[in-house]
Amino acid sequence: MLVGDSLSSLDEFALIQSLNYKKQSNNFHNKLGVIKGIGDDAAVVQTRSGSQLVMTCDTMVETIHFNPYTMLDEDVGYKAMASNLSDIAAMGAIPKYALISLSIPKHYSTFRLKKIYKGLYECANYFEIAVIGGDTTKSPKHLNISITLVGEVESNQALFRSNAKVNDLVFTTGYLGCSAAGLDYLLKVKQKQLMLGQIPMNFLPLVKQHRRPTPQIKAGRILLQSRRCHALNDVSDGLSSEASEICEASNVGFLFDEVKLPIHPQLREYGQLIGKSPLDWIMYGGEDYQLLGTVSKADVVHIQNRFQQEGIPFFIVGEVVAQKGVQMKDAYGNIKKIHKKGYNHFN
């Protein structure tokens, strides 16, 4: 297939074959319990007894989630898969199977689609996800990629947003705000298909975090297996938004400590360069795909030790309080209300 070939040279089934052929072996699928994958009306998988299915669906839309100034084609596929994995991680579950729905505009070549699927399978294979089916349709103008992900979790053990308790400590599993700052940088540079080698080294971690975030599957499993985590959420729409979701579901409040919020050195440097507080990206940026949760004070050392053993960051950033809503205490002890204003598609 040549670089400039259009979709008109392939029918739907030939395109599906072209995008998925030899990306995953039969042995790999068999190991994950796939009875029937791509090629029939529906997929069939064998699940374990004593477990429950966990299902999620996420969509990436061209011009809304990505454009040629912000993402390479391979990154689009990788991130589409990673964002779904993050939802599974927030339940403490093990991701297993993916269904891919693709709506394709006429001007997309099969070469570009193959690059998108290359990134998608890089993420799927790294986290051992079997791609078992989906759908392809025509789109009038922009590319849409939607992934349905199925995972499994031990029966009645899934972690929810609704169990935070007053006097719990609030934690995150890594640095926040880097993805939003990376996006800000890319939009300011506005250079199509900007390769990593063209980005200054001091801003590279920000761009990498935006293009290829790491879903915290292992962290979610540690938290579930510890049986000490009370509430959990993934940070996809900004810390203020995700904190508000836990507070509303649990009928409690969060009091963040500004001094304890970790700031990545490159995030601080970029903020100083353009005259913006890193806290703006941390609280309202989104697409970090770290985990935000709560744990009792009595259990926090145990969980910290487990994270340290696995080499995964773990930061205590505040506490759960009775007063509803989200608040922030600054270095001088002043407390202010934090409004829920992370990313919202309809605002």
Verbal overview:
The chain is an alpha+beta fold and 347 residues long. It has two domains: 148 residues, 2-Layer Sandwich (60s Ribosomal Protein L30, Chain: A); 170 residues, Phosphoribosyl-aminoimidazole Synthetase, Chain A, domain 2 (Alpha-Beta Complex), CATH 3.90.650.10. Helices cover 34% and strands 24% of the residues. The protein contains eleven helices and 13 strands. The strands form three sheets. Strands 8-10-7-11-9-12-13 form a seven-stranded mixed sheet. A four-stranded mixed sheet has the order 3-6-4-5, with helices on one face. α7 packs antiparallel against α11. The longest helix has 17 residues. It is globular and about 65 Å long. The mean pLDDT is 92.
Notable features of this structure?
347 residues, alpha+beta, 60s Ribosomal Protein L30, Chain: A, Phosphoribosyl-aminoimidazole Synthetase, Chain A, domain 2, 7-stranded mixed beta sheet, 4-stranded mixed beta sheet, 11 helices, 13 strands, globular
